Task: structure prediction
Amino acid sequence: MTELEPTRTPTIDRMRRNGQWNPLWDTLSRWDPEWTERFMAMNALPMRRGVFTPEFVELLSIAIDAAATHLYAPGVRRHIRAALDLGVTRDEILTVLEMVSVLGIHACNLGVPILEEELEAYEARRRES
Result:
């Protein structure tokens, strides 16, 4: 394997297939694939256990990604899209964004425009079906 090839591991491969992989992690994965695999597997364990409903996991993920300490727009978008597909309402998502905004108003600045775009796209997809 060359230094430029991404490392392949079960959790990382699954995250890439599911669109959950952040390309910013590629270098870390190449430099220390064992640590990265274990970290990603540990990070995914609470969701795989099924203690929370999928809807709650998506709402929690929106809160984490939109929080002022994270501000990860691709994750906010991915989790809003998944939440809408699971039947979570605009008001439920908006409430999460409002709650997390106490960490910094930037959560709403980031999340509300994404929610609006994704809600419009979701409604357009529903009209097409």
Remarks:
- The chain has a mean pLDDT of 89.
- The two ends are 45 Å apart (CA to CA).
- The CA atoms of residues 50 and 57 lie 9 Å apart.
- DSSP finds seven helices and no strands in the chain.
